[in-house]
Amino acid sequence: MRPDAMVAAGILASRFAGLLRTIAFAYFFGLRSDAADAFNAAVRIPNLLQNLFGEGALSGSFIPVHAGLRAQGREAEAAQVARTVLALLMAAMSVLVLAGVLATPWLLDAIAPGFTGVRRDLAVRLVRILFPAAGLLVAASWCLGVLNSHGKFLLSYASGVAWNAAMIAALLIFGPGSSLDRLAVYLAWGSVAGSFLQFAVQAPTAFALSRGGGGIALTEPVRRTVRDFFPVLISRGAVQLSAYIDTFIASYLPVGALTGLQSTQQIYTLPVSLFGISVSAAELPSLSSDAARAGTDALRARINAAVARLAFFVVPSAVAFATLGDVIAGALLQRGKFQAEDSLIVWGILAGSSIGLVASTQARLYSVAHYALGDTKTPLRFAVVRLVGVATLGWVCALVLPGWLGIPGIWGAAGLTASAGVSGWVEFALLRRSINRRIGRTGVPVTRGARLWGAALIGAAAAWGVRVALPPVGPLLRGAIVLPIFGVVYLGLTAAGGVPIPGLRRR
Questions:
Q1: CA count, 13 A, side-chain hemisphere, 72
Q2: If you write DSSP's letter for every residue of 460-477 in order, what string do you get?
Q3: Burial readout 332-360 (b: 16 or more C-beta within 10 A, e: otherwise)
Q4: Is residue 153 part of a domain?
């Protein structure tokens, strides 16, 4: 199985479990409740640390060094680097977790300053429960880095199933009969248990692959990893810091905006994770090896092949979110306390997210290409540009624009995702131009891109025709009828236009 296919399979399992968790959460909490907003604000703190210190900075700084050593046959030194990096991470996270628990009220005021009263009190309690999980999640991300460097992608990316399963179990066991505030507390403890399980399922294999070599030492490869860590921490963390900015601004919006953003994120990040992260994560070790041993032609060919795979799947995802978002939201979430009007709000947020979907997935790949070339500073500069755009445009679109247009304030959440999308295109354009200057022209040919967008738009039109012709049916049945029409038309038109499905071999 191809590395990106293994990553995609692992992410698919994890994201499917995440969707089930979101469905269960929506069933018990609905969209507009103080408890839902409090939990969704609180859970962003350990997730932010995991993505910044773990899957973000650790993968961008550790994997290139570790994979490069292994490509040169220096297995014992690579194992020593892995163990030393883990020790440094755990020491840093111990300090951060302790400081975070003590400083929770001030942290919450920094992340969600618009929270007051019951919402704030509950969020403070939840953050203190959730904070220790951050250390476990970062340790799990270290395992992911080791496993990926050894070509073991499936286990590392499927481990998120354990975290989601623990939270689903907490909802199903304690949901019936519990008040929403108490259920949020039970769910937070379920998250802590799931974080331990996510680490535990990977740890035996990761530790076995890190045996041999000398003891913990600050060798030159370790120092190089540490030097690269902080630039990557900021550049890779742009998406996560964008999420922090979203939380900051959304805390001033009406109740339900933050939960709407979180519900949308589970849907929106499915193609980002399934295709963007799977391709980028699978290519990082190979790009690092190519950069160390091969010339620019091999590197350019690998980037172009990866971009083509991304575009084939992400373009229709963006079109579907923009045109059929209420169908998607209704089929997945509309049950229990989650109502039809809530699906419309999620559609608006999804439509805003669709603006930057193609850019954000490809930008991740181009950032990885910079890391493989040993350049961590260029993605950092462009990430700062993106963050400035997210903050300024997001404030205007979320808090000012709804008043100008005379629409309810909760629709400001859609303005947040739209502004992030515009900023994502700026970052992507800068990253691609930088790589093209170094190794030559890369990207999707114009004719191929036109075929993909044309097929997706025609597929959306066909799906809308079926949707209009349908008699009133439930949201799940409507999705089961309308969405496959879109997919079949898109696949049929791309095949007719000579664009095969990536990964399928012609006989």
A1: 14
A2: HHHHHHHHHHSPS--HHH
A3: bbbeeebeeebbebbbbbbbbbbbbbbbb
A4: yes
Helices of type H across 43-179: 44-49, 57-71, 75-102, 104-111, 117-149, 153-158, 160-174
Residue 92 lies in a domain: yes
Between the CA of residue 21 and those of 50, 160, 171, 418, 467, what are the distances in Å? 19, 12, 8, 25, 28
Is 344 within the bounds of a domain? no
End-to-end CA distance of the chain: 18
Number of domains in the chain: 1
| pTM, 2 dp | 0.74
Q: How confident is the model over 470-479, as pLDDT tens digits?
A: 998 999 999 9
What sections of 334-411 are H helices per DSSP?
Answer: 340-354, 357-372, 377-395, 401-405
Instruction: Please check whether residue 67 lies inside any domain of the structure.
Output: yes
Query: Whole domain around residue 49: which residue ranges?
Result: 33-236
Q: Which two tokens stand for residue 6?
A: 């293994």
Axis-axis angle for helices 278-293, 357-372 (nearest 10)? 30
Is the Cβ–Cβ distance between 320 and 460 less than 8 Å?
yes
Question: At residue 72, what is the residue type?
Answer: Q
- Residues with Cβ within 8 Å of residue 19, at least 6 apart in sequence: 266, 267, 270, 332
Q: 379 and 314 in contact (C-beta within 8 Å)?
A: no
Q: What is the pLDDT of residues 230-287, one digit of tens each?
A: 666 665 555 567 777 888 898 898 888 888 888 888 788 776 665 555 555 555 455 5
Q: In angstroms, what CA-CA distances link 18 with 4, 13, 372?
A: 20, 9, 30
State the amino acid at position 140 in one-letter form. Answer: A
